[in-house]
Design brief:
The complex is a heterodimer of chains A (307) and B (504). By secondary structure, chain A is an all-alpha fold. Chain A contains twelve helices and two strands; from the N terminus they run αααααββααααααα. The chains are: A mainly alpha (307), B mainly alpha (504).
Chain lengths: 307, 504
């Protein structure tokens, strides 16, 4: 039972990060019908910006601000930096290809992903960067917390899970309650009709990239608080986020959240009960099964092609 | 009212008259004249360039192929070094890979992100069928076709789940197949106690090629690359090229092209879309798998890390650069990219190429105009001034390693600031500013662009000398990524590809 609780906790932590990444894929796919292969690399850049901000603020052992403010500041820095990066990617790599055949922006996205990953490797090396969250408050983030049975739930995990869910709730409010959010929904439903109704499509697309990339940046920091980050991490993180988006139904926001959690649990239980070696394989098998039997995902609607 | 009648009947009469004429110039049913004749509307260049162009266009494809193969065959005669011969062999392998990917991407219009895995399947199949791993040693002449067939079958199977899925979903399934392949090869050292792939240690001591008792040792007696492997690969290259050329001209080839242009319309016209997609997949996979045998036979070993994502991007860049859909184009793309990557391997050689390329690009864009003079002159003046200023502030700022690298690079070293030691922040700041400036350049035009080009070029030289050159490995892949994006935006048809006519 203790193992099960521990694994569920692992799954929840992993899953909330995957869900944040998946949201970025879904937002962009919903509006542009484009798989943004570079999204995983935006996540990686986010974790590096967080690391840079952490060093600027004095490092984790001896920060110039209280720990709670430190965490908020590095997350905000990563979100802002990634938002700028996302907008730049959209403006220069995708916008010129908006009317091109569908394969063109996909290939462009591959190029962007590759460019970002190796630029980071060029500038900051291939070494791992560790946030060293343990020394942030002399281990308080790890030792404090509460117990479920014999399993300790450390404060750090609570912070990660709660922040991820707060961000998702904020996004949900933004999309359903504000004018821009409603414009996004309209655009994703039918781009041409939305344009005819006076919605500025370019603005909506930029907004989707800002939101998605900022969430990826936050995910980057939340992920790197527990595990070291490195330049090549974007590829696998992108694949996972993307699988989560597909499981939930790409284009659907609640779907991306559910998909992320399902993926997180699946991975955690496989690692715990079967083998760590094959846990990646399981993820891919789940995805291929979904592709075969329910390509629209859990929450998506079947795609009907109109001529 | 009578007017209205006339308006209705006129096109019918016209069509009847046209079908009665039956001439080659008459409109045909189901054929869009404007699209079919877009080639004629291309503006012909005048002058001697135009004449040469027209003459060259009339040379048949097999003559170009023969010339190309003859040049590669002559290479080992001119260059004694084993290095050049080895690069030539790698280039032929890349050309074969590009030809295979061209079937899927260029003709079928499908995004196959698992292509390199088929290359890996071929390599592993060859390694398993001709090594001590399971003590199987099949004759080479059997193994090569057998591996191609295995590759084709695997391609078919991978295509099966994705056949109903279009576009993006296909890309995902193939990408995940790629990951499955990598996971399997990396962890295949202990499957129920049996070792199939030896995991990360790879399969070693794979047999050399042997045709009817004629053995091809990997290395010559002096330990150099055996040039016979180059010839064997070339023979297969010619076979594959000719076979694919004929295939492209066949019914299947035309069907693939219609599939690429509009899958929905093709389906409505009664084409077996699913079967065609699977065929494109299987053919591409077969070519890739066959290519895997050459690489493995020459290297004598196979490891999972030989088949990773960068290789996929490399082959994609070749196809996109040369022109997806054009066989000559993808071969040209393979040659350019392969040589480019080789040139970037050694910083000493690569150093000068950068300036040559910049000058050529400027000359191509601005021809002989005042703008060219302003850009080149401005950059040199800015460089000399910047260097003098830097030198007067602190001598170590310009005391960088002045390697002897040919006259052109030496001239460059006179005005580019190369500090003895680079502060940690300089690299990221200058590199990111360079990317930002280069992107900004695409937004402005005219004289603003000319003025902006001067600091951009100087910054580019600085970044090249100080940041990019010391790390050739990252630089190679940055160049490939940037090239992919730039090609898709500026020239999606590639160097030799035909521009697609959009029908809306």
């Amino acid at each position: 039972m203790d193992t099960f609780i521990q694994l569920t906790l692992n799954g929840l932590t992993l899953g909330s990060v995957y869900a944040l990444i998946a949201l970025g894929y879904s937002l962009v796919y919903g509006i542009l019908k484009l798989l943004n292969f570079a999204h995983g690399d935006v996540f990686m850049v986010g974790s590096f910006i967080g690391f840079g901000a952490l060093q600027l603020l004095g490092g984790s052992a001896d920060p110039v601000v209280p720990v709670w403010l430190l965490l908020i500041l590095i997350t905000l820095a990563a979100m802002a930096g990634c938002a700028v990066l996302g907008v730049a990617i959209e403006r220069f790599a995708y916008r010129p290809l908006r009317d091109a055949p569908r394969i063109a922006p996909l290939i462009s996205a591959l190029g962007v992903s590759f460019f970002i990953a190796y630029s980071m490797q060029l500038l900051f090396g291939a070494d791992q960067r560790d946030y060293d969250a343990f020394s942030m408050s002399d281990g308080a983030l790890f030792f404090n917390g509460f117990d479920i049975g014999n399993v300790r739930v450390p404060l750090l995990r609570i912070i990660i899970i709660v922040s991820a869910f707060v961000l998702m709730a904020l996004l949900w409010m933004l999309v359903t309650r504000t004018r821009t959010g409603k414009a996004m929904q309209a655009t994703s439903h039918d781009r041409e009709a939305a344009a005819m109704m006076g919605i500025d499509i370019d603005r909506v697309i930029v907004f989707a990239f800002v939101l998605g990339s900022a969430l990826a940046g936050a995910a980057g920091v939340l992920f790197a608080l527990r595990a070291p980050t490195f330049a090549a991490i974007g590829f696998l993180a992108g694949l996972k986020g993307f699988t989560a988006a597909v499981i939930g139904g790409i284009g659907s926001i609640p779907g991306a959240m559910a998909g992320g959690l399902i993926l997180g649990f699946a991975e955690a239980y496989t690692q715990g009960y079967i083998s760590t070696k094959w846990s990646d394989l399981l993820v891919f098998v789940i995805l291929i099964l979904f592709m075969l039997f329910r390509p629209q995902g859990l929450f998506g609607k079947a795609d009907i092609r109109k001529v | 009212m009578s007017d209205y009648d006339d308006e209705l009947t006129r096109p019918l009469e016209g069509a009847a008259a046209a079908s009665a004429a039956e001439g080659p110039t008459s409109p045909q049913v189901g054929r869009d004249e404007w699209v079919a004749r877009h080639g004629e509307r291309r503006t012909r260049r005048g002058g001697w360039i135009g004449t040469v162009e027209q003459r060259l266009a009339r040379v048949p494809w097999w003559a170009w192929l023969a010339l190309f193969v003859a040049v590669i065959c002559a290479l080992p005669g001119v260059f004694e070094s084993g290095y050049v011969r080895r690069v030539a062999f790698d280039t032929v392998v890349f050309m074969l890979l590009a030809l295979g990917l061209n079937i899927v991407v260029g003709w079928g219009g499908l995004l196959d992100l698992g292509y390199v895995a088929f290359f890996g399947v071929g390599a592993y199949a060859y390694a398993i069928l001709s090594s001590d791993q399971f003590d199987i040693h099949l004759p080479t002449i059997v193994t090569i076709p057998l591996v191609a067939v295995i590759g084709g079958i695997v391609g078919w199977l991978v295509g099966l789940p994705s056949r109903r899925l279009t576009g993006d979903y296909l890309a995902i399934v193939t990408l995940f197949f790629f990951q499955v392949f990598l996971t399997f090869t990396n962890n295949g050292d202990n499957i129920r106690g049996h070792s199939i792939t030896n995991g990360p240690n790879g399969i070693l001591n794979v047999d050399e090629f042997e045709f009817f008792g004629w053995k091809l040792p990997r290395a010559t007696s002096e330990g150099l690359f055996n040039v016979r492997y180059l010839y064997v690969a070339l023979v297969f290259f010619v076979l594959v090229y000719v076979a694919l050329h004929l295939l492209n001209d066949s019914r299947t080839g035309r069907a693939w092209r219609s599939l690429r242009e509009d899958p929905l319309a093709a389906e409505v016209m009664g084409m077996p879309v699913n079967r065609l997609k699977l065929m494109a997949f299987a053919f591409g996979a077969a070519v890739a798998a066959m290519t895997g045998t050459f690489a493995t036979a020459l290297n004598g070993s196979v490891f999972p890390q030989n088949f990773e994502f960068p290789l996929l991007i490399t082959v994609y860049t070749m196809v996109i650069l040369g022109g997806a859909g054009s066989q000559a184009g993808v071969v040209l793309g393979a040659v350019i990219v392969s040589v480019l990557l080789e040139a970037l391997r050694d910083p000493g050689d690569a150093r000068g190429y950068f300036y040559v390329l910049i000058l050529l690009a400027l000359a191509a864009v601005y021809r002989t105009s005042l703008k060219l003079v302003v850009v080149v002159g401005g950059t040199i003046v800015l460089g000399v001034v910047a260097r003098l200023v830097a030198e007067s502030i602190d001598g170590s700022w310009t005391a960088g390693p002045g390697e002897d690298a040919g006259p052109l690079a030496d001239r460059a070293a006179d005005w580019v600031i190369v500090p003895a030691r680079l502060a940690e922040w300089v690299g990221p700041v200058t590199y990111i500013s360079l990317v930002a400036l280069a992107l900004l350049l695409t937004l402005v035009s005219g004289w603003v662009r000319v003025v902006l080009l001067v600091p951009t070029l100087y910054l580019a030289s600085f970044v090249w000398e100080n940041v990019l050159l010391p790390q050739p490995e990252s630089t190679r892949y940055i160049v490939l990524g940037a090239l992919l994006v730039a090609m898709m935006i500026a020239r999606p048809q590639g160097l030799l590809g035909e521009k697609r006519v959009e029908i809306v």
